[in-house]
């Protein structure tokens, strides 16, 4: 589809708002990719043994290197308010930092709201920061499943960092959102070739590289689920750059063009820099799209990636979205995406899982994107599914990963065709 082809978008599509039982991971899951990204940070989850088991099961057991996350387990006497949890927390933090002198950022992560775990982690972080600064910065955020869903843990983490970032009057571009290092390096290389420097990132790989923020900072998101971080940066005086998210060739190109326009870069130079990776992405996606073209897709709400992914699949792969569910619809961040998403699908916000299951069963889309807890039952009913969690853990941003992104959706369809040849007819 050409970028200038007139069509009816989803900008004015009524949103089906659902409030009921949800089927989604909690925000603690974000620690699994954040602890790998921030190389001198440690995430101490204050919670139950259940939370410890979740992290170990989701992240796997670290054999050759000590992980940069752990759990301060609350026992029954702590939850009953019979022990001095603050004193115990102070003692555990002191032990951790004495054993791990490499830690420069310590995040206290609540697994439940303060009234449940009987400890105010915000005050605890402030107290501990006073004790251990300047060697260690202590911050806190919530990963509670009551307060956050899957990817909102990263948003809460980054938002907690913004108030403590140093101030600056320098004119800089800030790219916000955790990316795998290899993808971030590709992005920074293209930005440098475009003439977009200096460029800083949040999160930075090390605390010594944390960006400064001020009135001349222009920032752009690479992840759709960073609404709180977006608001926190605006509060610090930074100016947002609005753009579609860099999924697929089209999204990546529009993202880079938005940066170029905001910074006043030479468009001819920008297009020359982007020409080769754009061509590679178009060719590689086209090959995978043969499997996807004309196939219908149904998104359960999971990560807030759903609307940008539906846009990519519809416009570049020829898929037909039936329903696009998202845990939370941030109108400002999603406006460029909704303007590109072809009219037709139901757009739903939040979840009442039983009602949505009814709609998914009625639709019987060629591919259903959902959480792990729903995938196997739906497969048993004859539906082809894709685990939504893979879309966060797999490198999928920008040009070189565009075909890999399409491939994540093509593989289950190919698998179904091999297992049940009649499905391919």
From TrEMBL:
Cofactors that this protein relies on: [4Fe-4S] cluster
Reactions this protein catalyses: chlorophyllide a + oxidized 2[4Fe-4S]-[ferredoxin] + 2 ADP + 2 phosphate = protochlorophyllide a + reduced 2[4Fe-4S]-[ferredoxin] + 2 ATP + 2 H2O
UniProt keyword annotations, A-Z: 4Fe-4S, ATP-binding, Bacteriochlorophyll biosynthesis, Chlorophyll biosynthesis, Iron, Iron-sulfur, Metal-binding, Nucleotide-binding, Oxidoreductase, Photosynthesis
Nitrogenase/oxidoreductase component domain segment(s): 26-405
Keyword Transit peptide on entry: no
A biological-process GO annotation: photosynthesis, dark reaction
Pathway noted in the entry: Porphyrin-containing compound metabolism; bacteriochlorophyll biosynthesis (light-independent)
Residues holding [4Fe-4S] cluster: 26, 51, 112
Record-linked SUPFAM superfamilies: Helical backbone' metal receptor
EC code: 1.3.7.7
UniProt function note: Component of the dark-operative protochlorophyllide reductase (DPOR) that uses Mg-ATP and reduced ferredoxin to reduce ring D of protochlorophyllide (Pchlide) to form chlorophyllide a (Chlide). This reaction is light-independent. The NB-protein (BchN-BchB) is the catalytic component of the complex.
Known partners and oligomeric status: Protochlorophyllide reductase is composed of three subunits; BchL, BchN and BchB. Forms a heterotetramer of two BchB and two BchN subunits.
Similarity section: Belongs to the BchN/ChlN family.
UniProt-recorded name of the protein: Light-independent protochlorophyllide reductase subunit N
Gene: bchN
